Amino acid sequence: NKQIILKEYVSGFPKGSDMVVKTGTIHLQLPEGSKNAILVKNLYLSCDPYMCRRMRKLEDSYVESFTPGSPITGFGVARVLDSGHPNFKKGDLIWGRTGWEEYTIITEPANVFKIQNTDVPLSYYTGILGMHGMTAYVGFYEICSPKQGDYVFISAASGAVGQLVGQFAKLLGCYVVGSAGTKEKVDLLKNKFGFDEAFNYKEEKDLEAALKRYFPNGINIYFENVGGKMLDAVLANMRLHSRIAVCGMISQYNLERPEGVHNLFCLITKRVRMEGFIVFDYYHLYPKFLEMILPCIKGGKITYVEDVAEGLESAPAALIGLFSGRNVGKQVVVVARE
Ligand code: NDP
Hints:
One of its GO terms (molecular function) is 2-alkenal reductase [NAD(P)H] activity. This protein is of the alpha/beta class and about 350 residues long. It has helices at about 50-55, 130-145, 160-170, 185-190, 205-215, 230-235, 265-270, 285-300, 315-320, and strands at about 1-5, 20-25, 40-45, 75-85, 95-100, 105, 115, 150-155, 175-180, 195-200, 220-225, 240-245, 275, 305-310, 330-335. It folds into two domains: about 1-125 and about 305-335, Medium-chain alcohol dehydrogenases, catalytic domain (Quinone Oxidoreductase, Chain A, domain 1, Alpha-Beta Complex), CATH 3.90.180; about 130-280, 3-Layer(aba) Sandwich (Rossmann fold). The site of NADPH dihydro-nicotinamide-adenine-dinucleotide phosphate has 30 residues, from helix 2.
């Protein structure tokens, strides 16, 4: 059983070498009396920014630290090989929390979802049909209170979550602008995902002025993925009674001390509602979300771009690459295709 192991707790910026590939043995059958556990073969794994935070020794966080010497864990798609759980049987496909290894025994499959629709790419359950699709759906429809005609800005807009938020906003009839870190991504936003405008934030000396260019009358909705300087620039450009959904702050995750935000006073003067959310609190909406998104995918109304890394060994570099923007679209790792 090939595994990706965290060597030690990480301080500072994580590196691929903080993880190591090890090969152990696993009996491909659950031990006698494994009530409620399932043994799975992992097929696709999801690389997520929050996972690097879990490499630190965390106290007081919404996620637990990984255990040094043990496999990394994260979201993935897998096939059930053996089951002691009444809801799962051999051959079922599932998505949810699993290990970064070839085979995993999931002892508490409470947040594991059985995959019912297999006429879409299976890897989609690591992204658009899994946690990231739900994040975009909840963040946009539940937190942003969107209306037709709203002026919407999305940072890290070409990523797993951002590309979907932009498309949801376009379907509703909003004006949508996204920021991303390369020309290739800016082109994707405009030409593939149908954003009205997009810009490369790395080429803008003055982010506040750049936003003023795209939103001369201000922003109604900001979908926050990045934090730091971008948040400050956005705050200065928000409209009266506008909304900010705080989904993530990737620019802050690996800093010893998060940067300060200076323009918070704008929340008062512009009567802005700024609200953080965690997708796990909204899993009860998953069936409703599937009802909406599956016809959109099948009917070509929503498209999804994935960046696929081949083989478990490629996972550490793929994960670290999120922080330099190496991924173009949702970062997926293929462990096995069936
Ligand atoms: P992405 O697929 O968007 O990958 C991360 C991207 O962030 C990179 O490709 C890079 O793109 C950009 N980035 C990296 N470092 C910086 C930086 N310092 N400044 C600006 N941009 C940077 O990730 P996801 O779509 O999976 O996640 C987006 C955000 O949503 C993250 O902050 C994540 O933690 C959060 N999240 C929150 C959830 C919740 O429940 N609240 C659930 C899931 C995700 P570029 O080339 O454009 O710089």
